[in-house]
């Protein structure tokens, strides 16, 4: 299909406040119980949350899904944390409330690397996100969306929310906390902020600190959104048209970080998308069409304010901040650890995972990351299921 770049007026399908209560069970505050629905969106209230900036969110709700059964000893629970644009829908088909099928369906499920016949798997949507957890599209106490008023939230604030969420659903200790990319940042903070509450960690394609280069790559994406006139300083929820052009452009830029030059070159070459030449006749190269397609598709499921909030969170990431540096922070980690990197990752390069693995005392590969050779670049942690599954199996057996 020859997708065009248009200002898309199709309403986005991120979850608005009004939709929350029709898409899931009412908020729960008690522990998970045998017989609770699994693989279906649930909500937990964690109350007020003070964030590092000094602001306070008066009421925070966490959307989550779970699969498998919690053992009577509560010793088989695994927390899975998603990347920037993922959500709680880790595994399973798309359907009502889920525009995409599960982003790790090949890893999580019966008989898979994270075997839901054995493990009780829980996946929350991140604080600041747009799939049911409190974020910029949620209502502030004055009854209007938070929008640009949503506080600056750090990776540590998001983990503080996840810890409170663990309390709310009655999990004292996780058998493993697993995540890739931004989810891997959360995993590292979990292991430092609450070492007594987890046994194992898997940090996939994530850095110990977001570097100047990575901040720069992220910052231009935020600027693409902000310069869209339809952004209106974040106050676009009541408008017919949101900042879809800016958001789609941000997504195009992001995809370039997520894939490798080899993959794009070998997949698209210099092919044209249609019979119309891109050499001055108005046609497009196939790779342009691919980026347009993903940019447009993304605007149907993601909130531009959330994109900015979460990108700012990633920019805040530095496990060494206030802890005497990265090496000192890594020394605090006591969980058995899998660190996985992708050789072709140009977003969070392998060198970052090598630094993490070298600084850990508890890595399962004695100072070395598990290295994946793949043409897919950063996204390999989502696509190379056999290799990622193998590494996670090794961790869970450790
Ligand atoms: N494809 C992933 C990569 C970010 O780590 C996402 O969109 O979230």
Automatic annotation (TrEMBL):
GO biological process: homoserine metabolic process; methionine biosynthetic process
Task of the protein: Transfers an acetyl group from acetyl-CoA to L-homoserine, forming acetyl-L-homoserine.
Pfam families recorded: Abhydrolase_1
Subunit text: Homodimer.
Designated name of the protein: Homoserine O-acetyltransferase
Active site per UniProt: 181, 345, 378
This protein's UniProt keywords: Acyltransferase, Amino-acid biosynthesis, Cytoplasm, Methionine biosynthesis, Transferase
Binding positions for substrate per the UniProt entry: 251, 379
Enzyme Commission (EC) number: 2.3.1.31
Catalytic reactions on record: L-homoserine + acetyl-CoA = O-acetyl-L-homoserine + CoA
UniProt family annotation: Belongs to the AB hydrolase superfamily. MetX family.
Segments forming domain AB hydrolase-1: 76-382
Pathway assigned to this chain's UniProt record: Amino-acid biosynthesis; L-methionine biosynthesis via de novo pathway; O-acetyl-L-homoserine from L-homoserine: step 1/1
Enzyme class: transferase
One Gene Ontology term of the molecular function aspect: homoserine O-acetyltransferase activity
Compartmental location: Cytoplasm
Major subcellular location class: cytoplasm
Source organism of this protein record: Agromyces atrinae
One GO cellular component, as annotated: cytoplasm
Taxonomy of the source species: Bacteria, Bacillati, Actinomycetota, Actinomycetes, Micrococcales
Coiled coil: none
């Amino acid at each position: 299909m020859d997708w065009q770049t248009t200002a898309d007026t199709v309403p986005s399908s991120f979850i608005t406040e009004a939709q929350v209560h029709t898409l899931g069970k009412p908020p729960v505050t008690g522990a998970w119980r045998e017989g609770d629905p699994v693989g279906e969106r649930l909500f937990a209230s964690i109350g007020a949350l003070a964030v590092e900036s000094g602001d306070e969110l008066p009421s925070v709700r966490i959307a989550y899904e779970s699969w498998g059964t919690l053992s009577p000893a509560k010793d088989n629970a695994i927390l899975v944390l998603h990347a920037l644009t993922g959500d709680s829908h880790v595994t399973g088909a798309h359907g009502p409330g889920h525009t995409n099928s599960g982003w790790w369906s090949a890893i999580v499920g019966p008989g898979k690397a994270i075997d839901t016949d054995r493990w009780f798997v829980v996946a929350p949507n991140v604080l600041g996100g747009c799939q049911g957890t409190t974020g910029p599209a949620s209502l502030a106490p004055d009854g209007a969306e938070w929008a640009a008023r949503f506080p600056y939230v750090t990776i540590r604030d998001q983990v503080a929310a996840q810890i409170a969420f663990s309390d709310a659903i009655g999990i004292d200790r996780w058998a493993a906390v697993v995540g890739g990319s931004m989810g891997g940042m959360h995993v590292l903070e979990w292991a430092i902020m609450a070492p007594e509450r987890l046994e194992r960690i898997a940090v996939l394609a994530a850095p110990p600190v977001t570097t100047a280069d990575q901040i720069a790559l992220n910052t231009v994406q935020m600027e693409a959104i902000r310069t869209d006139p339809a952004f209106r300083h974040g106050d676009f929820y009541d408008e017919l048209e949101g900042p879809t052009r800016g958001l789609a452009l941000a997504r195009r830029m992001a995809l370039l970080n997520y894939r490798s030059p080899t993959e794009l070159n070998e997949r698209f070459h210099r092919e044209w998308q249609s019979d119309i030449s891109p050499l001055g006749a108005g046609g497009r190269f196939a790779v342009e069409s691919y980026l347009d397609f993903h940019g447009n598709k993304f605007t149907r499921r993601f909130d531009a304010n959330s994109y900015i909030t979460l990108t700012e969170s990633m920019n805040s990431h530095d496990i060494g901040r206030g802890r005497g540096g990265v090496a000192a922070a890594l020394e605090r980690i006591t969980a058995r650890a899998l660190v996985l990197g992708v050789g072709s990752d140009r977003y969070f390069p392998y060198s970052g995972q090598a630094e993490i693995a070298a600084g850990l005392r508890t890595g399962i590969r004695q100072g070395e990351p598990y290295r994946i050779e793949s043409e897919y670049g950063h996204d390999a942690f989502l696509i190379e299921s056999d290799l990622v599954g193998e590494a996670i199996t090794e961790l869970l057996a450790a």
